[in-house]
Amino acid sequence: MSSMGEDEVSSFFESSPPLKKMEDILQKLNGFIELNSSGGRRRIVCVTSGGTTVPLEQRCVRNIDNFSSGNRGAASTENFVKAGYAVVFLYRSGTCQPYCRSLPDDPFLECFQFPDNTNIQGICLSFSIYIHRFIFNQMFCTAVAEARLLKLPFTTIYEYLQMLRLIATAFKDVGPCSMFYLAAAVSDFYVPWNSMTEHKIESGSGPLDIRLAQVPKMLSILRTNWAPQAFCISFKLETDSKILIDKATKALGKYKVHAVVANELSTRKEEVVIVSSSGNVVVRRDSDKPEAIVEDNLIRLIVDRHSTYIKESHT
Amino acid sequence: MSSMGEDEVSSFFESSPPLKKMEDILQKLNGFIELNSSGGRRRIVCVTSGGTTVPLEQRCVRNIDNFSSGNRGAASTENFVKAGYAVVFLYRSGTCQPYCRSLPDDPFLECFQFPDNTNIQGICLSFSIYIHRFIFNQMFCTAVAEARLLKLPFTTIYEYLQMLRLIATAFKDVGPCSMFYLAAAVSDFYVPWNSMTEHKIESGSGPLDIRLAQVPKMLSILRTNWAPQAFCISFKLETDSKILIDKATKALGKYKVHAVVANELSTRKEEVVIVSSSGNVVVRRDSDKPEAIVEDNLIRLIVDRHSTYIKESHT
C-alpha cells in the first residue's frame, strides 16, 4: 500500500457528505456484535449487496447507478445464517432481501393484475398464499428470533464506503472469525463532492461532458488497515467471459483477498468460479433440483475455507 | 417544428433497441381504450411517473438514473380515477404505485425490524394491519373492478419514449377528451445506442470522460404530430427556486403545452405552481387536514381546465 493510495482514501472520506444517523448505526452494530460474539456463537460475516449510486448533483436528481438486483447477496445471507453465522447485511435500499427472494417485486400488486384478476375473492386468495409463504418461513423466523441478522441500507457510494469502514472497524476484535463477503456492485468512478454542481445540471445547451474520477480502491485499505485479520472474499463481474478469469486473478494479487468469486453477467445464476492462490474451482448450481441455487454450493465451499483459515490462524 | 427536430427524433427511434413485448402492450392498450371509450365514460389520461435511466453500456451494468420516487404520479392517478378518468399509468419499474403510497417501501420487512420486534405474534399482528389497510382500500377495488387503471412499466429512456409514442398514437381517436399528464423525470442526456460500448467499461486507467448527447425534445412532436388534440400538462422540477418560474414559462412557450406544473425539489409536497397562458396559480396542500396531499387540489384544477378545453373544442 503506497502512501499515495492512503492519501486518496483520506481525501475521499474528508470530502464525503457526512453519514446520517451514524450514532444510531454504530449502536445497532456494536449491540449486534456483542450479542453474537458471546455464548459460543462466534462467526460473523458482513455481506454487501446491490449497487452503489454516484450523485452527479449535490441536491441529487441525477446519478450514475450500478445495476444489481441484490439476489446474490440475499441468497448468500440465507446460506450464511443456515451455516450458523451472524450476518451484517449491508444492502442497497430497494434491492432483494433475504427470505423474500421468491416473492415478486411487488407482491401486493401481482395479485391485482388487470385483466386476469378482477374478482376480489380471487385477489385475497392469491394474496394470502404470498403471505403464508413468507410469514411461515422457518429460517427467517429463526434468524429474527435469534437475532442473527442485522440489516443496514445504503444508496450512494459515500454511504456505502463510510458504513463499510464502520463495520470493518467494529469487526476488528472478532479477528479471524470475521468475514467480508463483498458482493455489492461498487462504482468505479465518481464525481468528487467538492467539484460537483449544487443545482440541477441545465439542459438545452448542447452535449454534456462529464469527467469522472476513479473511486480509490478501498479493498486494499480494508485488508491492510481496517480489518487485517478478517477473511475476505471479493467479487468480479464481467460481461465478456474471455477476460473474466484473468481480471479476477489480477484482483486476487492486487488486493490480497483470500478469494475472488468470478461471475459472468449472463450465466451468473448457473455457475461462478472461485479464484484463489490454491487454484480455480468452478461452482455450479445443482441443476437436478429445481429449487437449488448456485449460492448453496458457493457458501458451503466458502465456509469450509473460512474454517481452515480460522484453524491456521490459531496455530 | 423544424425538420431538424423531426430528423433528430427519427434517428433517435431508429437507433433505439426495439421494445420488447410490443404486441402485448398494444393489445392491452387498445383493449383498455375500447373498454373505456364506450358506455358514457369518455375521458382518459396518460399519467407518466418516475425517472428514466440512460444505459452507459449495451449489456447494461452502469446507467445514469433520474431520481424520482413516483409519488406525484401515483397520487395524481388516484385523484384522476376518483374524478372519473380512465388512467394509463406509465411508470418506472419499482417506483410508487397508486393506492400503495401509504405503505412503507417494504411492508414485509418493516414488521420484522430487529431488535424491537422479535416476537412472532407481534410481527403477524403488525403485518395484518398493513394488509387490511391495503386490501380494503375501497377506491382501489373500484378502479380494478371497473377496469379503469392500466399499468405499463418502463426502465430506460428508450422504453419510455417508444411507449409514450404508442400511447399517444392510440389516444388519437379520443381527441380532446384525452390528456397527457407528464410527471415522469425524463433524462435530458443520453449515450446514443450505436456509439455505446458493448461490454462493461474498464476501470483502472485514470479518469473516465463521458460525452452525453441531448435527448430530442419529444414533447413538441407529441403536441404537433402524435396527439395534437390531446390536453397536455408537462412538469418542470428545479432545485433552485429563483429560476423555476422562468424556466416553466419558457417551456410553456416552447412546447405549446396547455399548462406547466412548476415544482421545487424541497417544497414539492407542499405547493406547486400551474403556469399557463391565463396566468400562474399557486396550488397548496390543505395543511389543516393531515391526510391531504397537494395532488388533491392540483388534479381538481387540472380537471376543471380539461373540462373547459373539451367544451371549447366542441364549439
Can you offer a commentary on this structure?
- Chains A, B: Residues 163-283 form the DNA/pantothenate metabolism flavoprotein C-terminal domain.
- Chains A, B: InterPro entries: CoaB-like_sf, DNA/pantothenate-metab_flavo_C.
- 2 copies of one chain form a homodimer.
- Chain A has 10 helices and 12 strands.
- Chain A is an alpha/beta fold and 315 residues long.
- The first copy, chain A, has helices at residues 3-15, 22-36, 71-82, 107-110, 120-135, 138-145, 157-171, 218-226, 241-255, 294-314, and strands at residues 44-49, 53-55, 62-66, 86-92, 149-154, 178-182, 189-190, 208-214, 231-238, 259-264, 271-276, 279-284.
- In chain A, strand 11 and strand 12 form a beta hairpin.
- Chain A folds into 2 domains: 3-99 and 137-314, Rossmann fold (3-Layer(aba) Sandwich), CATH 3.40.50.10300; 102-136, no CATH class.
- Helices cover 41% and strands 21% of the residues of chain A.
- Residues 110-118 of chain A have low confidence and may be disordered.
- In chain A, strands 5-4-1-6-9-10-11-12 form an 8-stranded mixed β-sheet, with helices on both faces. Chain A has a two-stranded antiparallel sheet with strand order 2-3.
- Chains A and B meet through strand 3, helix 4, helix 5, helix 6 and strand 5 of A and strand 3, helix 4, helix 5, helix 6 and strand 5 of B.
- Strand 8 of chain A pairs antiparallel with strand 8 (208-214) of chain B, so a sheet runs across the interface.
